[in-house]
Specification:
The structure is a homodimer of 443-residue chains. By secondary structure, chain A is an alpha+beta fold. In chain A, 32% of the residues lie in helices and 21% in strands. Chain A folds into two domains: 3-183 and 356-442, 3-Layer(aba) Sandwich (Aminopeptidase), CATH 3.40.630; 185-239 and 286-353, 2-Layer Sandwich (Alpha-Beta Plaits). Strand 11 (289-296) of chain A pairs antiparallel with strand 11 of chain B. Chains A, B: This is Dipeptidase.
Chain lengths: 443, 443
């Protein structure tokens, strides 16, 4: 095994599960290991305490006149349950079939370590870096980065930079370098629909009072028309139309045909807002999804109750230039306006995050594209992502800088799931990518 | 304590929970006790084995020229969970505040024993009964009477009778004698809506495939218009219109005002099919109730999944002259016709039972009314019930005889729930009722 893989394996062996307080010591040990590794490379490191898990900062010697590049990553990982579904222990990494198997291998330790090792290689080969570098590694990404925004605000001056690079997203398919320049935002809410004070006998009382399960269904059903277009008043008002070049490029992105989508999701049919391709629906159009619905008896057989209450959880994925708070207000207005007779409806606001977009054809964007091409041997596709990474927008707002999303995950990398894995080829490509990126940015 | 209350207490002490195989011995011991009690009264008894719990039959000496009256009851009871909510142990009956507390006190041991003890008293006082009596007591009512129909069919000749009396329903309010002459029927079904092969990330895939939770909501919502009228084609075709006398009588039935319904259900508002009172909605109009709905993440906080599947359970309460199988077919057609795009919908049929109605002004019906008036000192109200007791209709079909429903339960008797209780006054009234009924029927 190469020294580089040995470093990654050492990093992967820490069960740095941020959500589980039993693993707080492991998260800290992982941060300490990282500090030592970065020190050993000749970088200046700082370990910043937060109310929970520490933030690790590392820099080379900065020089006026050089561009400053901040590389973000996270060293915490998701839990491993159900652990019995793993083919090899999640914190005992191993290589099989050209992939590195273990929790965090892709998300995010593998991608993050590729940047670290790229810098190490470059420092060894050239003695110094062509840019002023800031590594910013947090230990709370998997729990929603609760302490990152305060940290960014407090250290705004020290973190001043010209561009940010993040490898925490995906490649659309094996061997297809991918640059992301947009993310959907999100706003979540939950409704509780209440009727009778307790479950009623559906024979004795059915027909004279409203059924909360029927009412919640009416509310959920009211969110879309039959074609899948969202029926909330004003919902699409601020949606930025797709550019012509985006529609053209996305039509050619591999892995996004209807057959691909059906294959990967297993859905019986494609369904979505009329007049848009799947890629367009996922990357440039907002959604209203029910994440959960429940009420009454859901066990085996029948229980003829008229349930006392029912609930639904929603997440709305947002695109530029929708504002999460504006959408949350429109959703609330809609739900209250459509509240069926005979029940009470409570709307509970959830978390939110703004959508993000930057110009992939800017100077930095072009540098990212060239670096990807050099690392992987072909021109990258330019995409937005359907998911939400609120910190990208936070960094844009606080530091005033855009992020290049240079993701190395593949659709079958099983992030957040059992048997997470990372292609050795992408790990090695990631190291090349880092070096090419720093050079291109410096030009 | 009177000898009659002692008999009831002995009967109540058997934990004859029919659904729990651990209590099979208790159910049998209860049947044996009943046989002994009936023998001690001078009746001829039979204990009939079934694949599960025995059926107890008892008769006096029958004489040609006398009317034959069958009195049905059940000696099995519901489970007692959650047992910690009981104020006194469920199988250690006691009297507090004029009520007998214990599992089965109302449903059905108390009501049934009132008939038994009425017969005992009459036999002591008069030496014989004015009718040919058949007691039919089963031990499986609380599990849906799986062996009663085969038993009725096998013993059709021996069970030949002119009228059936059943005390297993309710009085509309304290001190208001009540005769039921109708029951709603029922048909149940469950739908499973399937989309992707597994839960999807709502950001990564939301927007390009249909969400089964949205689809199940659309289907549930399609069952009613916004006023609560059922929107299934042909659903109301066979509904028998209310008679003028029924609307007039029900308007005067106590305990059925909107304020009463709101008070007992705790619902925030009255809701139901336009142009009908609550009593009419409950007793003479059919329903489409969601008993359960579920899909996706229902726990605390948020989990932004697009669920793989969702489900809903329905029960439809039916009124004369709706046919459960006809309605089940119409429901299935409706659900298949309204199946949203992009998902598959499976409809699974559940159990059913026909609605029941008889003429409360027939000769036997009048005898029931007079007996209630004699026992409780005022003319009874005539109602139908919202619930379903399929065996009443089964007995009508197999034995060709109608049932008088002379219920003694009160709305606060907590049947099927912790702290089940039976008013001592209604127990004593039930004994008087039995004697008056047999006399009136004999006239």
């Amino acid at each position: 095994m190469t020294k580089q893989l040995e470093d990654l394996f050492a990093f992967l062996r820490f069960p740095s599960i941020s959500t589980d307080s039993n693993h707080a010591g492991d998260v800290r040990a992982c941060a300490n290991w990282l500090i030592e590794k970065l020190n050993s490379m000749g970088l200046n490191t700082e370990l910043h305490e937060t109310p929970k898990h520490p933030i690790v900062i590392a820099r080379n010697e900065h020089h006026a006149g050089k561009k400053t590049c901040l590389i973000y990553g996270h060293y915490d990982v998701q839990p491993v349950d159900p652990v019995e579904l793993w083919d090899s222990p999640p914190f005992e990494p191993e290589i099989r079939d050209g992939r590195i198997w273990g929790r965090g291998s892709t998300d995010n330790k593998g991608q993050m370590m590729a940047h670290v090792l790229g810098v190490e290689e470059m420092l060894k080969e050239e003695g110094e870096l062509p840019v002023n570098l800031i590594f910013l590694f947090e230990g709370e990404e998997e729990i929603g980065s609760p302490n990152l925004v305060p940290f960014l605000e407090k250290h705004k001056e020290a973190l001043k930079c010209d561009v940010i690079a993040v490898s925490d997203t995906g490649m659309v398919a094996e061997g297809v370098p991918t640059m992301g320049y947009g993310l959907r935002g999100i706003t979540c809410c939950e409704i509780t629909v209440k009727g009778p004070k307790g479950d009623l006998h559906s024979g004795v009382y059915g027909g004279c009072v409203a059924n909360p399960a029927t009412a919640v269904a009416k509310l959920v059903a009211s969110l879309h028309d039959d074609n899948g277009k969202i029926a909330i008043e004003g919902f699409y008002d601020d949606v930025r139309p797709l550019e012509v070049w985006e529609r053209e490029m996305w039509a050619k992105v591999p892995g996004m045909t209807e057959a691909d989508i059906l294959n990967i999701t297993g859905s019986p049919a494609i369904f979505g807002e009329p007049d848009y391709s799947s890629a367009e629906r996922l990357w440039a159009r907002p959604t209203a999804e029910v994440n959960g619905i429940g009420g009454g008896y859901q066990g085996e057989g029948s229980k003829t109750v008229l349930p006392a209450e029912a609930m639904a959880k929603f997440s709305f994925r947002l695109v530029p230039d929708q504002d999460p708070q504006d959408i949350a207000a429109k959703v609330k207005t809609h739900l209250e306006k459509h509240a069926p007779a005979g029940v009470t409806v409570e709307v509970h606001a959830g978390h939110d995050g703004k959508p993000y977009i930057c110009d992939p054809h800017s100077e930095n964007g072009k540098a990212g594209q060239v670096a990807l091409e050099q690392a992987f041997g072909k021109a990258p596709v330019l995409i937005r992502e359907g998911g939400s990474i609120p910190i990208i927008q936070d960094m844009k707002e606080i530091l005033g800088v855009e992020s290049l999303m240079l993701g190395l995950a593949l659709p079958n990398c099983q992030i957040h799931a059992p048997n997470e894995n990372f292609y050795v080829e992408n790990f090695e490509g990631g190291i090349r990518l880092n070096k090419a990126l720093l050079k291109e940015l410096a030009k």
